[in-house]
Write a structure and sequence with these properties.
By secondary structure, the chain is mainly beta. Helices cover 8% and strands 62% of the residues. The strands form 4 sheets. It has a 12-stranded antiparallel beta barrel. Strands 20-19-22-23 form a 4-stranded antiparallel β-sheet. A 3-stranded antiparallel β-sheet has the order 17-18-21.
């Protein structure tokens, strides 16, 4: 059994290495004309880094606020490179100017007309490099000048770090999305103006999913310290499933992993208890059974019953089924569809 367990875990490791997601210009580069409508959520902890993570955000709460995000091409390009396009990213009142190329893009400044604020980077921020895969990271220093109401000047300088720190399965209220890549961004800066100085630290987590050009989920924490005062901390997050991409000419996010019934089991391997969750696209009859490696039925986890569309969950306690260390098969019968997942008891 020990030899079998080692072979099984080795095969899982090889599968994960070959199936790791990566961001590319073709699939994730910004395109003029693209737009999305993000839904604000109350902040939750971002979870762990590493390979084969399961981020269970099925309990998130929506605030009711939505924000439009769009991409357009600048009518007055600032880029001096022939293979680079100057684009405007519009988000929550800000228009960010970026130079986009096949190997990545950099932010050169932004404008907020409502706040009467303009910022120009004398040393722009490299925001993304392509391709970008799990375990890769880069840092880039930046400097700039911001002006409020056309006169008040603020000099700023800092450092931007971007790392693809995790990949795995993202669980939302209405879907399971596998092979997601999480990107962690940390932006630290010092701002000096006539009224004093401000130390700022922004930490963001973005989840990129197959079939979506832009992040589908984001969490951020901003910490601003004005002079010697106590820091002001702001936490927020959003879900971005309503995306439209000009590459496809229609809404994105239609891959089979997102559209069909989906199952996730975690942690796997497990010691005492394993959790399973599954998404149903419509009302169907469901049966969940547990088998050992010889094909013998160990027990009925869920007897046949009709269940509504949406997210469903359950747990298996090893003591309740008398499970010994080894490999088992968890069989989900969703109407006429059968999904079998291997689980390992250690």
């Amino acid at each position: 059994m020990k030899k079998l367990f080692l072979l099984f875990t080795l095969s899982i490791s090889l599968l994960n290495v070959s199936g790791q997601p990566a961001l590319t210009f073709h699939d994730n580069g910004p395109l003029p004309g693209d737009s999305s409508q993000t839904q604000e959520i109350t902040w939750v902890d971002a979870g762990s880094a590493g390979a084969d993570q399961v981020w269970d955000f099925s309990g998130i709460q929506y605030s009711g606020k939505s924000t439009f995000r769009g991409v357009s091409e600048s009518v007055s390009p600032k880029s001096s490179s022939g293979n680079s396009k100057t684009m405007i990213f519009s988000e929550d009142g800000y228009d960010f100017t970026c130079n986009s190329r096949e190997d990545g893009y950099e932010e050169t400044g932004y404008v907020n007309l409502t706040k009467k604020m303009i910022l120009d980077y004398s040393d722009p921020i490299v925001k993304m490099k392509y391709p970008f895969a799990y375990g890769e990271q880069f840092s880039d220093p930046f400097t700039g000048v911001a002006r409020y109401d056309g006169s008040d000047r603020i000099d700023l300088a800092g450092d931007y770090t971007c790392k693809a720190d995790a990949f795995g399965t993202l669980i939302l209220r209405d879907r399971l999305i596998k092979n997601c890549l999480r990107v962690k961004v940390v932006k630290q800066s010092l701002q000096i103006g006539v009224c004093g100085s401000t130390q700022s630290r922004l930490e963001k987590f973005y989840w990129f999913a197959p079939g979506y050009r832009y992040p589908v989920f984001m969490l951020s924490v901003t910490e601003n310290r004005y002079g010697a005062k106590e820091p002001v901390i702001i936490k927020n997050g959003w879900v971005n499933l309503n995306q439209s991409s000009q590459l496809a000419g229609t809404s994105v996010g239609s891959s089979s992993e997102i559209a069909g019934n989906a199952v996730i089991v975690y942690p796997n391997p497990f010691s005492e208890q394993v959790t399973y969750k599954y998404i149903l696209q419509e009302q169907v009859s469901v049966t969940v059974e547990l088998y050992d490696m010889s094909g013998k039925l160990v027990g009925m986890v869920e007897k046949r019953q009709v269940q509504d569309a949406g997210l469903h969950a359950g747990t298996i306690n090893s003591g309740s089924f008398g499970l010994k260390p080894g490999v088992y098969s968890l069989r989900f019968t969703l109407d006429h569809e059968v999904i079998v997942t291997k689980i390992v008891k250690i």
